[in-house]
Amino acid sequence: MRVFLDDRPLQADDSTLSAALDAARASAERGGRIIVEALVDGAPAPDADLQNPESVTRRPYASELRFVSESPRALVGDALLNAADAVGAIRGKQAEAAQCIVRGQPEQAVALLGEAVALWQMVRRALEEGGRLLGVSMLAAPEVGPLAEELARRLGAVRDALTSQDWAALGDELDEDMDRHAAAWADALGALAGRVTSGA
Question: What are the respective helix, strand and coil percentages of the chain, to the nearest 5?
């Protein structure tokens, strides 16, 4: 079985997936990189195989197994830029929800806010998972730490207004300050992505 990491041939101890994956991980780690993709005879490796490679015992596992690695910093930087893009969608949904409240359409506002909250949760996951990958607390980074505290307060107020169906209070929370807060998040995530990618 031929095994490659970023087009470089590797020598695995056995022709199993587990042995090939161990060899690829060790080689990637020596270069300060992580495995991000595996191709089996040109096709993506099944997730089930990668999650439990020891259970896949056929020999050889494939004719050719290619692994792709990436710098953790580059990976996290890309995730943060994607999160910054998501904030643009959040701003649109929050603004539309505010207009729905003005028009007396609370049900539509609630649906839009549900979508916005799901996107905010995605942003938080990007920070948490990126931090775990780099061994730091990204939620405590100077770019986003104060914003994270303010966001928790604002989303708590939105939740309370929704629970009590206080549409006036909800409209107040979705004012221009909320949009400015979201815009600040987009800028902060972009700045943090640049710092992470550069290694600063």
Answer: 70, 10, 20
